[in-house]
Structures are given as C-alpha cells and as structure tokens.
Write a structure and sequence with these properties.
By secondary structure, this protein is mainly alpha-helical. Helices cover 42% and strands 0% of the residues. It contains 4 helices and no strands. The longest helix is centred in the C-terminal third of the chain and has 14 residues.
Length: 91
C-alpha cells in the first residue's frame, strides 16, 4: 500500500490508533440535527457503506462524526469504522 495514502487514512480515522478517544479531536457536538436519526438508523440496519451527499456546510461531516462516535460507544471495533473525505486535496 502507498505509505502516503496509509498516513492519510490514519489521519481521517484516528480511532484506529487511539480507540474511542480518537474521535474527540474532531470536537463532535452533542446537538443532533434532524437528519441525524434517519442516517444513523440507515447504517445500523445494514452491513454496508453509507454515503451522505449534499450542499457544502450543511452538517454532513458532523453527522458522520456523530455516527462514528455512537459506533465507538457501542464497542464496535475501531478498525471496522472507515471514514473518507473526498474534499481532501490528496484524493
């Protein structure tokens, strides 16, 4: 695997190295938007990837971080949680 890509992935997924504390670096707010519940139930019902698309600055990343935090709180193994941002210039 490309070492630079691996470093990027570790940066996007700090819980791989740090466990549940890794999500704290993103400062995840406790307030949940209206869209949180349907998205959270979608990823919990299926064993597949969930993609969130929409306009810029509407809370997509925040919702994803909240979902990740919930998974970590439910003791899902950190290596089973994969986050990827297509806004990163590396991609």
């Amino acid at each position: 695997m490309d070492m630079r890509l691996l470093q990027q992935l570790k940066g996007w997924n700090p819980w791989w190295q740090e466990g549940p504390k890794g999500i704290e670096r993103f400062g995840v707010p406790e307030f949940k938007r209206e869209a949180y519940a349907p998205i959270a139930s979608a990823y919990q019902r299926r064993n597949q990837a969930v993609s969130i698309v929409g306009l810029r600055q509407v809370g997509k990343t925040t919702i994803m971080h909240q979902c990740i935090q919930e998974l970590l709180n439910q003791s899902v193994p950190p290596r089973h949680i994969f986050y990827l941002s297509f806004e990163d210039s590396y991609l």
